[in-house]
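Case study 2.
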Amino acid sequence: MDKVATQQLAAELERDAEWQRAGLINRFAEHRKRALAEHVAEWQENLVSKGCTGKHAGQSANRVRRVLDGCTFVFWPNVSASHVQAFLAGLRTGEGLSIQTTNYYLKACKSFFQWMVQDGRASDNPLQHLVCGNAKTDRRHERRAFTDEELRHLITTTHDGPMRQGVSGPERALIYRLSAETGIRANETRTLIVGAFDLEADPPTITVAAAYSKRRRDDVLFLRPTLAADLRAFLANKLPAAIALKVPDKTSKMIRADLSAAGIEYRDDVGRVLDFHSLRHTFITNLAQGGVHPKDAQALARHSTITLTMDRYTHTRREGLVAALEVLPDCRPGSPEQSPQRATGTLGEASCGASASDPSRPEKLRPEDAKMLGAQLGVLLGGTAYGEGRLESASVASVAPQARASTSQKPLKTKGIDAPSHAVSARDGEGRSNAPGGSRTPNRRIRSPMLYPIELQARRLIRRRLDTIAAGGRECKLPRRGHQLSNP
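Prediction:
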């Protein structure tokens, strides 16, 4: 026991003596005389009684015991925050533990001492001011998401593979698909019974009971029809109370063996790994890259915060980063002011090209082409309004009414974003109005929430093409009428 601890003990004894002389009773005195090991055992029982799993309670208690033994803390007055901090630093330097692992030890100790305060066994938490280290500077197990090709190849080879840890190849492939398409965790999958699957519903669902869900409430997960069909065939001969899928305790060994059989490296060149939980990372990453709204992705991932969804579980892929650089302007000395636009996918070619006779010299847009473009844009948007302003091209304004007049559309017979907003009516076939005022709102976000993102992409493409016209840019290849626009 060092000098500081001795002084703390002497101060507490002196305070207790003063309280006794004053006729006061120290309600913490009896607990201070008990060994800390007894308190830890009772804390472990308390964790189980309030709903924590036995595994979690045992792991937390063992971490606290290791710190107490390493610091030679026997009674409450022996506890010193500086000793705990030095011991955890020794685990990192001496035993090679990561910062994340020692953070788990510190969190367990702080939780134990906080329980002592809340339970009336101590006056304060001696470790309250200690903070966890920055785990980002010492990552030992950085996960990555599967690419589409890797995931398909893993599931295909696993389906045809041998038995591993008592689980057949087709069943393991189904387990991997379930995790990659719903984001369900390994422990949650392990507790699913056949009765938790409602495969005849529309849409098919799985219900994770609150007792086994990480956030301790019933979670309903939606299934894709193809996955639901395969699950229906697999579970056809099982009783409702039977375990649906056999998930071994060591999922890491199972998936590493399947990765090796598929020829997929467990750890890539930069040290990132693929394990079972990477399937959940893949699910959330695919949602983000597929354009799903962040709040919808958060709900499907069952995360408490959007930060956890977008920062921890969403991974950027190399191909997407490289493609993103294509939007940067050409800054070479002597480069033209308007760089050639890259292919948008509309026609599989660049939207604007150079002259066929001289590729290095752009041609001015011919008046007849500008007129044709104006007609197409007028039909496409159903009017002259776009973005925050209106089309200012004279050719567009002059031909748009004729283009709209040529499209004879009946009420409620609209063709996606081609229909003008004022043509959408809420009247039925007999001319009776079924809404106040007889017409729906022209706001496309409300009237056509599914088509609004497509229209927004079209507006951006049109704005870019009109800027090219105004600047005397290159001849634009016009999309065919009714051709669906891709994301520019």
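The longest strand covers residues 205-208.
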